[in-house]
Amino acid sequence: MMKINRAELRDKIYACWMGKNLGGTLGTPFENTRSVIEVDGMTTPPGKPLPNDDLDLQLVWLLAMADVGPKNINASLLGEYWLEYITPFWAEYGRCKANMRDGLIPPVSGQYRNEEWCNSNGAWIRTEIWATLCPGDIPQAVKFATEDSGVDHGRGEGMYAARFVAAMESAAFFESDLRTLINIGLRHIPESCRMFRFVNTVTECFDSGKTWLETRNIITDMALEDPALGWFQAPANVSYALIGLLWGAGDFKESLLIAVRCGDDTDCSAATAGSLLGIMHGTAILPEDWCRHIGDEIITCSLATAVLKTYNEVNPREHFMVPYTCTDLTDRVMELIPVTLYGRQVQVVDGETARDEATWNWLREGWGTAELVPDSYEFSAESILAKYTVRYVETPDIAPLEERHIKLRVHHKFLGQKGMKFRWILPEGWSVKGRQTAMLEAVHWWDVNTDFTITAGETVEAKNVAILQITFEGHHDMALIPVQFMG
User: Fold this and answer.
1) Which H/E stretch holds residue 242?
2) pLDDT one-digit tens code per residue, 109-143
């Protein structure tokens, strides 16, 4: 069992959120600057931090965790929190919300017609909530980051970046060596992805003695040479954060300043560098003058505040269902950690922090996280008796009289053998071919896999929903899975 001291944990979590707020405030004035930036310190008026969607969205994920608990956090549920509480319609945020409103279930919502933004920065910038809720529990932090990033990035580089950063941040509660953390992050992404190649390039430049500026220019050229990347994309901007961390050599100010000087999505790179340093070293690394400059407040810009405000009759003032200070955010995370770590390999104790090496080696290696990455157009559903994975073999698009193929995987959650019946409820004039029954065997690992061919009728609407009904003989449980097709 891994053990972490309660006071040390709280100190690291608070430093994470303050580091996030400091980096966001430092970098926001220069966001989207596509040249090297000259900056030597804070440029904003003193007294408050700047609002930043990097932090805003994580407050909603905290609310989701408090509402439903860790067992129920998945892409589909987080998608509903997007629609309910998050206001922006720009870039990948807008694309995923439009897709969800058309009926596409996450993570298909992040993949469909999202070529321009699936490789962008919206997911890895919001991984701290998963890391702080899962300190040292790297597989669970990566699982949550995968579900989260799929909503607006599908299977793009944005998802791989989120997995990489979440793994580093969760590991940083027990490991303070930056190169070790980078290697842990790389274990949780495929070697074939751009994110892996960009990170390796940064470390190779560092080891060969190149300057941060030379490395920044190499990374920028790599991004611009790839037509699917360019500016404002995850592999380059995560690399800028790493450049700040490596060449900053443990100096908080210098690390964040170098990240900002690299340009592009400056609030994201500096904020993530700040939060990681906070987790690694606790509040001792935070510069007092910068902390005084921004204070403890969290100022939001991307939340439906009218919905999130409630009225407390005991203490008659407006307050948020989500935290409004870094102190409050830290307290709420600490309250939830006994729930998120229940039955896991990490324990919060009043005694000394202790890292069991056998357990640590298992946690950091990434066992069991590779299968979390969904196929291109794949989503999950669940009922009492089983879990379901639905995959569009082609795309969700369909034309009149056109065929589309659906693959279904059913995973048994219980031990008794069960007969299943499949029934499709289709738009008028549509038809389906495929098996109508199957048997769930009395073993957990024996999944049922089956295929269906759906043929559109002569009339195809803009949005067309086919409903797969799954019933179990002798049981009251039933699954109704909507499968959306776009005309």
Assistant:
1) helix 234-248
2) 999 999 989 999 999 999 999 999 999 999 999 99
Helix (H, G, I), strand (E, B) or coil at 173: coil
Closest CA to 216 of 270, 183, 263: 263
Write the single-letter amino acid at 65: M
Instruction: Report residue 31 as tokens.
Output: 């966001």
Strand ranges in 297-428 using DSSP code E only, listed in sequence order: 309-311, 318-320, 346-349, 378-382, 386-392, 403-412, 418-425
Taking the C-alpha atoms of residue 315 and residue 296, their distance in angstroms, rounded to an integer, is 21
Helix axes 234-248, 157-171, angle to 10 degrees: 30
Q: What proportion of the chain, given as a percentage, has pLDDT over 90?
A: 90
pLDDT at position 317, please?
47
Q: Which residue has the tokens 């611009």?
A: 224
Looking at this protein, which amino acid is placed at residue 361? N
Which residue type sits at 221? D
Phi and psi based region of residue 250 (left: phi greater than 0; alpha: psi -120 to 50; beta: remaining): left
Whole-angstrom Cα distance, residue 363 to residue 375?
24
Q: Which residues contact 209 (CB under 8 A, 6 or more apart)?
A: none
Q: What is the CA radius of gyration of the chain?
A: 23
Q: Report residue 171 as tokens.
A: 């590991």
pLDDT tens digits, one per residue of 78-91 = 999 999 999 999 99
Which residue from 407, 391, 339 is spatially nearest to 137, judged by alpha carbons? Answer: 339
Specify the pLDDT at position 230.
72
User: 390, 75 in Cβ contact below 8 A?
Assistant: no
